[in-house]
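Teaching note: in complex prediction, the entire set of molecules is handled at once rather than each chain in isolation. The prompt given to students was simply: 'Predict the structure of this complex.' The entities are:
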Amino acid sequence: MRALAWHGKHDVRVDTVDDPEIVNPRDAILKVTSTAICGSDLHLYDGYIPTMKAGDILGHEFMGEVVDVGVESTLEIGQRVVVPFTLACGRCYHCNKQQHAACDNGNPADNQDIGEKLYGHGMPGLFGYSHMTGGYAGGQAEYVRVPFSDVGPIVIPDGVDDDKVLFLSDILPTGWQAAEYAEIEPGDTVAVWGCGPVGLFAVQSAFLMGAERVIAIDHFPHRLELARHFGAETINFEESATYDALMVMTGGIGPDAVIDAVGLEAHGAFVDNIVDQIKVSTFLGTDRTHAIRQAIIACRKGGRVSMPAVYGGFVDKFPLGALMEKGLTLRTGQTNVQKYMPGLLAAIMEGKIDTSFLISHRMGLEDAPQGYKLFHDEQDRTTKIVLKPGMDMAA
Amino acid sequence: MPHNDHDDAPVATSKTASPERELVMRAVTINRSASDLYDFWRDFPNLARIMDNIVSIEPINGTRSRWVVRGPGGTEYEWVSTVTKDVPGEEITWQAEGDAEIANSGRICFRETHDRGTVVTATIAYDPPAGVVGKVIAKVLQREPELQARRDLRRFKQLMEAGEIATNARNARMRAEEMN
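The expected output is the structure of the full assembly:
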């Protein structure tokens, strides 16, 4: 099959590789119909994620048609499914608590060593995202092996377009969980740092959860425009002083809840990487931890801090004092995708959440390397690239 | 659980005690009954599924079993292990017989909790391998006991909870390579 493989910094290629097969009883094999390039894929592209190996197949946002099943899969050949980016067994203590992103069993035993050393516990398994999170081949390919297919993938009803449901795989549940972790009460004002896909879905989710006002912060005009389209007020941090603006806009109280949807996007980076990553970050200027610091400083006393943003290591000047003295609550974590998928699919079907607005580019799998370059170089207009392996055949 | 005189922490975690043999202790909680887990473990050939580099584990009689482990360049090492204590559903203790290349003994305990399954605690005592040859053997056999216990117990948990052992192999050929 053809697959988008990582070969090094700014070097991704479409290679011909062996097809995947059923390996374990709960596996399924999908023929991929749509797969997106994630902002966090850019950090693989930029070469900042450790434990990558040349030839690793990327892609953790994907969906497709079931073409083969293991004896214990509950899927049927021909079904269309969206796959959570986190691999969860569905049977351990954490899965039973719907903390799927903390699943003990999704990451192969040997690959858990690094996480245990860095974080105290092994990391979960993720598709297409380095070997410390499992070394699983991702979905930017014609076919993909999906473990735990009896509990992960969600079946999509016939007639629903890929573009409406693809983002159930990661960014929509991630934005939703971010808003949930903000513990929004009716009448609240919520501030969201970062209007990438997760931030924009957090804006929509916050309103659905009863926020009266959402204030979105970014520096890309097009992204701020999208946030405004969903009802947010906006602050362009290059043109306005964010803290001062927030204070005036909230009558000196500060936002009741703040959401950092910027982050470092670096799964499990090592200490010496962090400094570089901060300097070369692409999403919000040169000092990316600035977002979480600023969010904590702006948050009202007794408020909530939600951090869907990905961090990998250590940060300097973390305002721990402000967290304590103002009595803030901090919630964060990888997304428990499996928990939110059914409810969010229903919300999409009912028209309560719009997802396809995000897609700025659609292209074939063969064009994926150009897609990475475009997404990397043109952050403002390139909100989301979706690869359609079938388009190559059609062309 | 053995502990020292000063606190309740397991002796294997002591910063001051210096036991005659190296001690490794690791615990994992598995969402199954103690009897299920004991039954799997006590049927020693099953352990080849969760342990690295096992060629075969062959019962000789009720308490003795012959272990054959893969070594460098196609060589194989073997020893006989004897069960020295056996409490069904609770505990198994074993000891490698005299001529084993790395003298080792161990114990695995199964303690059921009221709501989280069973706490499995493995304790391995071993003599650090002597000399260059011993170190090479230990390294190649991956008998660095801490690493081995860590990975084996993870696989044990995966198999008993998820019903399969997680692998990133994309197909049967890659899976077979991984097992070798």
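Point out the following to students. The radius of gyration of chain A is 20 Å. Residues 178-332 of chain A form a domain with the Rossmann fold fold (CATH 3.40.50.720).
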